[in-house]
Here is the input.
Amino acid sequence: MNDPNYYANQHNAYNKSQKKIRVLDSTLREGEQHPGVTFTNKQRIQIAWMLDYFGVDQIEISPIVSRDHFEATKTIIKQGLKADIVAHVRALKQDVDVALKCDAIWTATYLGISDIHLKDKLRITKEEALKRAVETVEYAKSHGLKMRFTVEDGSRAEPSFLIKVCKAIEEAGVDRISIPDTVGVMRPIGMYNLVKMVHENIKTPLDVHCHNDIGFALANAFAGCDAGADQIHTTIDGIGERTGIPSLAEAAVALTYLYKSPNDFRLDMLTDLSKLIEQYTTITPYDSKPIVGTSAYKHKAGTHLAAILRNPAAYEPIPPRVVGNRRRIVFGELAGKTGAGYLMSLLGLAKNDEDAKAIAAGLKNLRMGDLLEIPLEDRLEKKIINEQKMMKGEEVK
Ligand code: HCA
Ligand code: CU
Here is the structure.
């Protein structure tokens, strides 16, 4: 059978950009800025190991927040993980010194460069900001660090000043530049234009760090990649300051299935990663959260059940097992004849159209909404594995 997403992918034109897009996960930095989130050092170390095993390219943590964070950063750096550990600090020499004390190989420093950040937060002039940016990069580079510089609030900065700063820090030897939409005010085409403008002026690889204040974070991050960025910032479940940034699950699945970006992500860890955060914080992700939500693979309406029972791909973008989630069907007043018939067969009753109809009507008359949920997976296992192979473009036997 053909890939059910074939035509959708034609519209997506994924095969036109199969470049590798990297992921920096900032659960331990941006994520800890979310209300209700604070990890113990053991948890931080465990999360870092799991993110590394999952396959992210960089893991960000801030050593300047507290003594504990300093210790956690140092310990995580010592683990010798595959991912780069990025020590995130302010654009100040004394902060770079903290990164050095952690034996960091990578550091990231940030400095607000929009008019409002310069005037009302930092209270410095553009000239002072430029000088501080260049001096910080030179300082970090002279101490042998690999370095990313974040032009904080870059989306709201005066474009010519933004480019001036980017060019100056490129000259000073910066290894990556992060273009953030710090307050989440871009729309995808705007993020595309912004990143394109920067990309046309400098050669340094670009990160995109997009906030979700209006709900565009993930779309904006990908628009930035279409314009030339090659690294997306994520957190588990998208937690972060205010409404957060793109979720690791959504970004990783989109990269794999919609962008066909080469990677070795262990996507089947995604649901467990989300559960881990739930366990360690006061946050319960809403049930309809894409990929990892408890309703992400539930099917309810009668017409949906009828289709799902024949072929789950009729109403699923990718199989739940691929992302460590589970498919369930919901029985209640919407179940319809097919749903009722399936319930009968589960209960060992002979299938009979009349009885199925009567049960479906009975369920409606009860007016009790959803009555029960049943996992639906094992008998479809082979089909699911084949779907997964097909969608990755592998041969199906
Ligand atoms: C912050 C600001 C930041 C930095 C992003 C980055 C933002 O909270 O320190 O370093 O890429 O959103 O601008 O998170
Ligand atoms: Cu941020």
